[in-house]
Design brief:
- By secondary structure, the protein is α/β, with parallel strands linked by helices.
- It folds into 2 domains: about 190 residues, Alpha-Beta Complex (Spore Coat Polysaccharide Biosynthesis Protein SpsA, Chain A), CATH 3.90.550; about 70 residues, no CATH class.
- It contains 9 helices and 11 strands.
- The longest helix is centred in the last third of the chain and has 24 residues.
- The N and C termini lie far apart (about 45 Å).
Length: about 280
Amino acid sequence: MISVILPVRNGAEFLEEQLRALAAQRSSEPWEVIIADNGSTDGSLAIARDWSLEHANFHVVDASGLTGASAARNAGVDVATGEHLAFCDADDVVLSGWIDACTRALTSADLAAGRFDFWSLNNIAPTAPVPAATRQLGFLPAGLGANLAIRRSAFLEVGGFDEHFTPGEDIDLCWRLQLRGFRFIDMPEAVVAKRARSSFREVFRQSYAYGRCGPLLHKRYRRAGARRDVRGALKSWAWLVLSLPRVFQPTRRIEWARGAGTRLGRIEASWRLRVVFP
């Protein structure tokens, strides 16, 4: 049995599209979907409950105790019955064969990261699916919680997601598992269509949050080998300064918001944590 954990908080706009994609999955192994509602106020909970009534293998859990994807995922795992776990997000869309690919990957590994289709939901030219398994901070590979599969026994041994670490909790979990000796692999056949933020403000806020997790990851794992990329940071800052006059051009605006958000988030967290991570 594999349990798909789907956290949601005010995701009514896209939730049903993801639920339809999950319901359309075909697998030789039994599977279930746990929709972990993290205190939604927009109708997401009602949508989830309707789906659970129509599909015997779809279940809803109240995950409103602590705000954040980490807490919601952990609450979902608490009620899951599968020996294997797969994680995805409410605003994305899993592609055909995703559940089977996650199941196969966990027959030979404890932890596996899938790939992302960045074009289908974002009206851009298609390319090959992008691996999530990248080496952050020159350290160990890691996947993203939007497309991740883990053996339940391994997940529980390390205590699951750190509920006070969001975002970046997925990278932290992948590193903790590998440092405990659990095996990590890439699963190229597990593809998720990733929905990008569309407005300057949304992209900036998301990137700012992602930027804040970098200094904390560095502080936690620098003794284990995580490194800073000072040269890359300087190049990024130079690009931001040189590109500032063109920030109002549509082709530059979103890219600039992403870079500026990341760097400013790193500055804020570096100051707060008393580390240097530009």
